[in-house]
Structure formats: C-alpha cells, structure tokens
Design goal:
16 strands, Enolase-like, domain 1, alpha/beta, TIM Barrel, 41% helix, eight-stranded mixed barrel
Length: 415
Amino acid sequence: MTDFEITDVKGLEILDSRGNRTIRVFVKTEYAEASGDAPAGASKGSREALELRDKNGSALPAVSSVNNFIKYGIIGMDVRNQEGIDQTMISMDGTPNKSRLGANATIATSIAVAKTASMALGEEIFEYIGGHRRHEMPIPLLNILNGGLHAGNGLKIQEFLIVPIDFDTFSEALFAAVDVYKELKNLIAERYGKIYTALGDEGGISPPLSNTEDALSLVYTAIKNSGYDGKIFMGMDAASSDFYNIKENVYEIDGIKKNDENMLDFYEDITQRYPIIYIEDPFNENDFDNFSKLQQRLKNIIVVGDDLYTTSVKTLKEGIKKGSTKGVIVKPNQIGTLTETFEFFDTARENNIKTIVSHRSGETEDNFIADLAVGLNSDFIKTGAPSRGERTSKYNRLLEIENIYNLSYRGRFLH
C-alpha cells in the first residue's frame, strides 16, 4: 500500500440548503480523508446529467451507488489520478447522462477525490487543481434580488445580480457589494415593509414585485445610494426556459407575451438604460440562434449560457460554431465529474469565452467551488447573495485565500 492509495469510500445522506436530501462522499487514504457534496438545482437544463433519487426525493439510491458500486471500482487506485478515477466511474456508469450511477454520486465522489489528494500532498485545493502558477481572484456575481423559481414573488427573471468591477482587491469588491445588498434591504423595508425582506433560495431578497423594470430600478437605486455607480455594475440570469411557452413560442413576462424579436428589443432596451454588463440564459435552452443574435446586438455585454450548455463540451462546441455567447456557466454537478468539468472549462478558455464557476440553488456548506474558481483562474464566481451560511462559506474561503496568498483581482483587468 502506498500513501496515496484509496483505502475506503463511503457515502451518506445529508441536507442541502433547501432542506432536501443530497449526498456526501468520503474518500480515504492511509493518511488523508476528505469529503465532497453534491449540490442540486431548482432551475435545471434538460441536458443535465441525472441525479439518482427515489420517488420521494431521497438520495439513498445515490448513496447505495457509492457504497455498493463506485467504492469497489476505485479502492486501490491512486487518489492523485483524478482523470483515471473519473473515467472509471464514467465507464462503470456506461450511460450518456450518468443515469445508472447518478451524477450526484459521481460528482460528490470526484470532488472528494480531489480534496483528499490535495490533503495527502499537503497542498491547498486550488493549488492542487491549478498548479503553482500565478492565480487571480475571480469577480463575484452576487444574486441580491430573487425571482423565478428561486422566490415566491411574481418576477419572471430569476436573478438580479450586481457585479463589482472597479476595485483593487477581491475583498474591497465583496464588501462594497455587501453595502449595496444592505441598502437594497433597507429600500425594500421602507417601501413594502420588513416582512418583504425575506430571502430566496440563494440569499437574495424576494420583494412583492412582478415587473422586471421595478426590480432593476430598485437594484440600481441601491447601487447609487451606496456611492458605487460606475464601480458596481448589474447583471441578470433570466432562466428564460422557465417562462417560455413552447406551444405558442412566446415568453410570458411582465404580464404579456413576447415573441423572439420582442425579447431581443426588451434586452436591448434595458441595457441602454441600466449599467447591465451580464445577461444569462436570455432565451430558451435550445435557441442557439437567438443567443447569437443578442450577442451580436449587444457586443459589449457578456451573454452567458447555462441551460444552453449544461457544462457539456458537445453543446458548447455548437454554441462556439454559432457565436452564441461570450460567457459560460461552469457547474460540475451538471456533467458529473471534475475531469469533464475541466475539459469544458478548457474548451471555453481556448475560444476566448468568459468562465463563471457557479453554485446551485440547493447548496451545502462545502466551499469547494471557491478553490475551483481560483485554481482554474475563472473570470467570475457565482455563489449567491452575501448571506446564508452555504453562500458565505464560499465568500469566506475566497477572502481567506486572498489574505494568505495576496492574489490579484480580475476585476481590474476586465474593467
């Protein structure tokens, strides 16, 4: 037995931030042991790799997958052989969407393998992932006002984001964004009452709004009141598949139905009136062409694909061919292993596409994606509002990394 040989693998059920069950996997060598968690999304792309659950939503089938199958496939392997271990799970599963073993089982195991390897080597996780090259701090995308499937109000747009760009350090950018978040909460309490400062799934505030314009105006007012106009910009995750009427080929938003051209005009109009630099999933998940049309119209905006790509190299290549987006969301659980995530990330980078390492609405306190974003030198990280422990755990890990290693902030280069 070597110091790096996997000696045990164990899965168990835990709770995510919505109180739903998910899976945590422990991977052990003689001198190191670490765990990885599988997050889960409320708004999912139809091409995502499949979670393994029973009819009641339990993750026990995924736990069984780890304890009765994956465990015996990877015990004895070198924990540093991330690609070999991930490929073993892919081969054991044998399906195109992880439907046999479950993507929740494979990604939790894959993350646990990487964390255990870094511990065994005495390295920070981000150094293990990205090597000892020069690393930079990603720009945080903070979802401070929630709508869509993440909230209980009438807003169709799922996330209203702030993007702190013009700052010298990550910590300055984050704390400025926190000021805006608090000001937004004050504005909502004054206008609608404190009862409406309740939080959505990702920690953003969920006021009683139903019109996109009202939400944008509130966020922009909070930015200006906080003194950060011109330093903090705005973004949106439309998650438009959730309000797309496939039968009529229209988008049902703000109380009216909009066709493709109406939606193109809608996005163009709001980007002319608000400091929006980022729009995610503006059209339904199969509409590569209208993504491309919007990106051509809004050349200075980062149009981003999430449901469009679901961290799949195959669909990303289609988007590259059509010029659909300048940005991609990177969610490891959408594809099921870190090796496939790395391949997706590298493909985006090689084609000058901005990368956004992202959480899910159903998160755990595991802060792995903070290290992932720094290790890969991602342009952005998207991990919710600066509230709720499962979100702040990522921000606090990033603050820790910056403080210890004195890394440069990417916002200065984007601006």
